[in-house]
Amino acid sequence: MTFLDQIQNAIDFIEAHLHDNLSLDEIAKQANFSRWHFQMVFNSAVGETVKDYIRKRRLSESLEDLKTDKRIIDIALRAGFESQEAYTRAFKNFFGITPGDYRKSGSKTHSIFSKQKITMGYLDHLYKGFNMQPVFITCEEFIVIGLGSPMISILSPEKNNHIIVPRLWRQFQRRKAEIKEPLNQNSYGICMPLAQNEKKSPDECYYMACVKVSDVGEIPSGMVSKVIPAGEYAVFTHKGVLEKVDFTINYIYGSWLPKSGKKLRMAADLEVYDHRFDPESDNSEFDIYIPVE
Length: 293
Known about the structure:
This protein is an alpha+beta fold. It is 39% helix and 20% strand.
């Protein structure tokens, strides 16, 4: 089964159970991905988060129900909304008209969010003009010391990464000098999965701002150490301002990965910030390590 088949399987499962109470774990299982990687892969390949895709498809399907004499409250519940008011707000935000006004208008044509068909042509169109080839590196096991915190990624409705990560880096930069004898001057951002019993939210993971060390030694107060296991990584270089890194990430997971023949490995994602990194410059560069096998 190809990478594209895996994503299409997830989409087909969603469509077959569009009006059921779908869980992210169920959908990820259809694609043979861990929940950890599935949200990133789906968002990059489809251009929508899983939650937004389901919501938009349900709203689009509800247009047909509005052409009947079904009560709007019943249509709202079938579309997965808890109340007619919530459905009406979402419907108006998406279509620019309320369900009632749509029904009164004689069901004129509106733009419908259709089921996605993921093909190489679709991905080429989505990332037209963007091409980035990685270097493959096998990293030996290494140790890091730094500040870490659970966080929830941007792909979750409960996201807090935009608050947690910048705050963590500010704190770390003030205290970096407390770490004795780092192996180099680089800083590392490490995002790793959490065990199920360590999570307060299903979408929670763990992020560290840190440096490499030769051994654990003395850990400054409030800091932690982690051992990063050996493994293969595809290394990409993000060029430009930090605010545009999402496009690089989406290209990696949405365009490069499906064509690469590689599979994602259940391990930490790494960011390496060296002398090339300058958050104030358009010429800034840093490396993104994606675990593969």
